[in-house]
Amino acid sequence: MNQLGWAAVAPPTRFDDLSLEQLHARRSVKWRRYPRDVLPAWVAELDFPLAPPVHRALADAVARDDTGYANADGLPAAFAAFAATRWEWDVDPQRTVLIADIMSGVGELLRALTAPGDGVVINPPVYPPFFRMVNEVGRELVEVPLGSDWRLDLDALESAFAAGARCYLLCSPHNPTGTVHTRDELAAMAELAERRDVLVISDEVHAPMTLPGAVHTPYLDVGPESGLALVSASKAWNVPGLKCALAIAASERMTEALRRLPEHVPFHVGHFGVLANIAAFAEGGEWLDDLVAHLDAQRTLVAGLLAAELPDVRHVRPEAGYLVWLDCRELDLGDDPSEVFLERGRVALSPGLPFGAQGKGFARLNVGTSGALVAEAVSRMRSALDG
Ligand SMILES: Cc1ncc(COP(=O)(O)O)c(C=O)c1O
């Protein structure tokens, strides 16, 4: 425990009740990548117990020995109802296709809807697999960095579209900065994209975790003709290993494009993923509200801890999610400060450089855990500087 006393910042919630012993028993990548003496605060997994409806849906399936192939029934309608309630977004379940996860969906969509060598715009610093996937499918990366305020740079986007980019991979909300794009920003961007016939693929996997003070605008809700949204319960309800997401088309034309995806695509979807997504969207709203309240408190907590223990580290206050982008350049720890935190502090953050050149000297901290474990992570980072 650090001197600030994490509990003083916000009253503990049920999400604070975590046992490190139980977390170490997990076999997911977050908990198995590093030796036991390292506190993992890197990959975007949550440490909390599952939402009860999700837990029940999965336990019931095991009780039925129900481990066959996925059947999509009920998921598009469950998501449509969730989108209508949360965001007043009118989703037509007929305009959706199941995909195994966001990134394989991005890959399939780029292969199906763009041509080899086409320019694909991304906004670094951004989720590293965006770089990898564009390269993997043989398209050309067009980097349009976020502005110095970590927001979309509409002028630079306009130039990239005018220069011939064919597709724009939007991260909405943005990882790693937690930026929530406003309706005005998205509407202005949509107009630019439509004018140049640029296909926008909007990754909205973090959207359910939009925090108080910000409002998530679904990209398709600003009315583009040529857009696709990718959604899943995977991040907010922590079921990314179950492999299920949805691609949603903006228009009839886009729906026909979705139907051109290879036949194998829905067969990669996990049956447990579908069951968990349905439970999350249909019955997981109350749990999600509590999660968002906890993440809001975590955001305040980490700001206080950093100010007290690592005043030279600047951070971006996330508007969504549980990932905190840390500017560690003042610490003079070189290009990859996460290496020093890991080696000397025994705490694993995500290194900044894979998010793009703008990530040099940065690291990303996962605060999707208890207050005590965030305090421990910051305290370990602090101790790394003592040695
Ligand atoms: C912006 C973003 N997109 C996609 C993913 C991964 O989603 P999936 O596992 O469904 O490919 C993540 C995971 O952290 C993410 O942050």
Overall SS class:
alpha/beta
Question: What integer is the average pLDDT?
Answer: 96
Span between termini: 19 Å
Low-confidence stretches: none
**DSSP strand count:** 13
Count of DSSP-assigned helices? 13
Q: What percentage of amino acids are in beta strands?
A: 5-15%
Shape: globular
Radius of gyration: 20 Å
Helix content: 25-40%
The helix/strand series, from N terminus to C terminus, equals HHEHHEHEHEHEHEEEHHHEEHEEEH
**What composes the largest sheet?**
7 strands, mixed
* Strand order, largest beta sheet: 2-8-7-6-5-3-4
Bound molecule kinds, no repeats: pyridoxal-5'-phosphate
How does this structure look, described?
The strands form three sheets. This protein has a seven-stranded mixed sheet with strand order 2-8-7-6-5-3-4, with helices on both faces. The protein has helices spanning 20-25, 29-32, 52-63, 75-87, 102-113, 129-136, 154-162, 183-195, 252-259, 271-283, 285-309, 337-345, 371-386, and strands at 39-40, 96-99, 119-122, 140-143, 167-171, 199-203, 227-231, 245-249, 314-315, 323-327, 347-348, 350-351, 362-366. β9 (314-315) and β10 (323-327) form a beta hairpin. The model has no long low-confidence stretch (mean pLDDT 96). The chain starts with 19 loop residues before the first helix and ends with a helix. The chain is of the alpha/beta class and 387 residues long. Bound molecules: pyridoxal-5'-phosphate (PLP). Pyridoxal-5'-phosphate is lined by residues 44, 101-103, 127, 171, 175, 203, 205, 232, 234, 240, 245.
